TrEMBL record:
Alphabetical list of InterPro entries matching this protein: DUF3575 (IPR021958)
Signal peptide feature range: 1-18
Name of the featured protein: DUF3575 domain-containing protein
Alphabetical keyword list: Signal
Organism: Lacihabitans soyangensis
Highest rank taxon of the organism: Bacteria
Length: 255
C-alpha cells in the first residue's frame, strides 16, 4: 500500500515537472541597486499566470544619489507635492521591503513573447534623509542641517510591461516599466537636535512656518509638532503616492 501511495505521488511529481507550470525567478540586476527580489510564478493557462514578487533592500545609501537628488529637486513637487530644494537625496539612506502580486497576460504562443500585467504592490519604507531647517534663535536665523528619519508604508496598483525568453527550463524575464499609483499611510518623520529644546514658543512658531514653506507640507495631509528636541511630522490621512517599477532582469527556472 505504501508503495502504491509513493508511486502515485511520484507520477504526480513527474507530471507536474513535465508541464512546467511553475517557475522560480531571481532578479540578477538587483545587486546594482542593492534591492533583492525573488519571484514565484504559476501558469493558470497557456497565456495567463499569477506571479508573486517579494523584495527587500537593507537601509543604506542609494545608488546614483547625485542623479536622484537632481531629479528630485527638478520634478519632485509634481510627483509628490513635497519640495526637495532643502532635502539632500544624495545622502539618503533607504530601506524597503514589500510584496507585489501580479496577474500576467502573455501575448502570442511563442516561447519568446511580450507580456502585460496588472499588479498590486505593498511597500514598507525606512529612510534617513538629511534636510536643512531654518531656525530662529535669539534673534539670529541659521540653517541647521539634520537627519530626518521617515517611516511609512504604501499600497498601490498599476500596469507592468515586459518580455520573456525561454530555453527549455531556463528563461529570462525583462521588466521594462511599471508605473503604479496609490496611497502612502502611517507616514512619520522626525528631526532631532538639541537646539530645538532651547527655542521659545515664538521661535517654534517661526520654525513650523518655515518647515511648511520649505517642504511644501499640506495641512490636508500632514500635522507638524515641535516638542523637546524633536520636530515631528505625521500624516493625518493617506497621502497620494506614485511609484515606478521597472528595469528588472529575472533569471528563471521552470518546473
Amino acid at each position: 500500500m505504501r508503495f502504491l501511495v509513493f508511486l502515485f505521488f511520484l507520477i504526480l511529481s513527474i507530471s507536474g515537472f513535465s508541464q512546467q507550470k511553475n517557475a522560480i525567478k531571481f532578479n540578477v540586476a538587483g545587486p546594482l541597486t542593492q534591492t533583492y527580489s525573488l519571484q514565484y510564478e504559476r501558469m493558470l493557462t497557456n497565456k495567463i499566470s499569477f506571479n508573486n514578487t517579494f523584495f527587500y533592500r537593507q537601509k543604506s545609501l542609494i545608488p546614483f544619489g547625485v542623479a536622484v537628488d537632481t531629479l528630485a529637486k527638478r520634478y519632485g513637487v509634481g510627483l509628490t507635492g513635497i519640495k526637495f530644494k532643502y532635502i539632500f537625496m544624495n545622502e539618503a539612506r533607504v530601506g524597503v521591503r514589500g510584496y507585489a502580486p501580479e496577474l500576467r497576460f502573455y501575448l502570442g504562443n511563442k516561447k519568446n513573447r511580450p507580456f502585460v500585467a496588472l499588479f498590486g504592490q505593498y511597500e514598507d519604507f525606512d529612510m534617513a534623509v538629511p534636510a536643512s531647517l531654518s531656525v530662529l534663535y535669539k534673534g539670529l536665523i541659521v540653517d541647521v542641517k539634520t537627519p530626518v528619519n521617515f517611516t511609512f508604508n504604501t499600497l498601490s496598483g498599476g500596469l507592468l510591461i515586459g518580455k520573456q525568453w525561454k530555453w527549455n527550463r531556463m528563461g529570462v524575464d525583462l521588466v521594462v516599466i511599471g508605473p503604479h499609483f496609490g496611497k502612502a499611510k502611517a507616514f512619520y518623520a522626525v528631526a532631532q537636535t538639541e537646539l530645538l529644546s532651547k527655542l521659545s514658543e515664538d521661535e517654534k512658531v517661526y520654525l513650523k512656518e518655515k518647515i511648511t514653506e520649505r517642504f511644501g507640507l499640506s495641512g490636508e495631509y500632514f500635522a507638524l509638532d515641535i516638542a523637546g528636541e524633536k520636530a515631528e511630522i505625521k500624516s493625518v490621512k493617506p497621502v497620494p503616492y506614485l511609484g515606478i517599477r521597472g528595469l528588472g532582469v529575472n533569471l528563471s527556472y521552470s518546473f
